[in-house]
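Lesson 9: reading folded outputs for more than one chain in a single document. The general rule is that every protein is listed as its sequence immediately followed by its structure tokens, and records are never interleaved. Here is the first one.
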Amino acid sequence: MTQKLFEEDAFLREFTATVLSCEEKDGHFLVILDRTAFFPEGGGQPADHGTLGEAQVIDCHVSKGIITHTLTSPLTPGETVEGHIDWARRFNFMQQHSGEHIFSGLVHSTFGYNNVGFHIGSDAVTMDFDGRLTWEDVLGIEARVNEAIWLDLPVEAGYPDAQTLESLPYRSKKEIDGDIRIVRIEGYDICACCGTHVRTTGQIGQVKVVGLQNYKSGVRVSILCGVRALAWANSVLKENQEISHLTSEQFGKLAGAVEKLLHERDDYRFRLEQNAMRLFDADMRGLSGDRRMVCADYLAVSQLRPAAGLLAKACALALVLIPREGGWNYALCAQGTDVRVLSKQLQSRFSGRGGGSADMVQGILGEATADGIRAFFLAM
């Protein structure tokens, strides 16, 4: 059994240990020590990274009490090695994990819902609850979590004896064999947990809810704690500063300014599309014959089908092209003729694809000149 130094002191950053074994596998080296401060992946918390001697520790797992470190280079069994924890990564995870405990504990005590899934992702902490919550609900919990942080309460972790454990109303997502480690934040949460935590709630810094979505029969809540919450706030501030600069509007009025710009854009787009159809109508009227093609770089892709339908009213077979990067958008239309066979000929000749009904097919064609497509179209 590997001695778990991270359980004795989660703030231990450096330690020495004896190398018990080293095995090469898939280009990496699996090392077992007599003791370690590296937390192995488990309970929703990722593994610690860092160094053992000169080797990089890139992963860490536990099985039957034995912790295996995945290294980039080998160590010699029997040697004493010095370990260094990537502290920024570890403390980040500790803030996220402790913040999640308070949040989940309050959801459980307030709504009676269980946390049935927890993961410290690279972007956010996600928590899956087995009941529905609204934004008003989660923002209310968020306020109470931050109140707990401001109180700077102790975060206690340990293995209570069987008698004490039996009397504790602790949360647990699964049945646990053997000794059970309990993490307690008085008045907020008591939970079975193998992870690393801050010493006091004040070290979490802050908690911010950034996501809520229906998930299975409950909800998935995304939060940011500590350093992640600060980084997120700075990114939001920077983005709002850029929007303020672009719109020449003050903070607090940015939504109105953006809404105004969107209305103006939609108005200009509507008028532009109207004018484009007028120009298409003029181009169309200048054509003759049973097969007619218009290459219209002034049309929006959304106008492709209406334009082809309009053109087909004046001829037996109509083809409308709109340039796109690396080729063309096209619509092929006819009145009373199945155009799907002809469309496949176009696609085969010009490396295209598409689909549709007997009277209208829409798709894309590969690189070709408009004159080349026209010649092939008229000769089909």
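And here is the second record, again sequence then tokens.
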Amino acid sequence: MAELVPWRPLRDLKREMDRLWNEFFGKETLPDLFETEWVPALDVSETKDAVIVRADVPGIDPEDLEITISENTLTIRGEKKQEREEKGESFYRIERSYGSFVRTIQLPAEVDTEKVEATYKNGVLKITLPKKAGAKGKQIPVKVEK
């Protein structure tokens, strides 16, 4: 089974430009001119009774998250705010990403929007979306005739 890897063309371009820059000038890297907006990584899984979405949102206050469902599409919005407590600090490198994000996912089954639950623990948002009765499917036994 092939592994799913997010496609980030600007990050790949930056990596290649860093390599060329290093070969030519011998410096560490180019400034982060090609950084894109921050988006949390997601896992979407399905059980017999529910669709489960887990999102890595460390450093985000759960009150800054907004979850909506419309026409079998889940949308998660939020903002990772940058702390500004520098007090004489000079930064040599800033690698942590900040900013607003929106993730929209087409759900693999119809869900009962009245029973959706969202929990937050250790920086992981877990959304449990129970399937509607018709979306669960029904197994039909085969009768053997004699």
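What the second record shows: The two ends are 42 Å apart (CA to CA).
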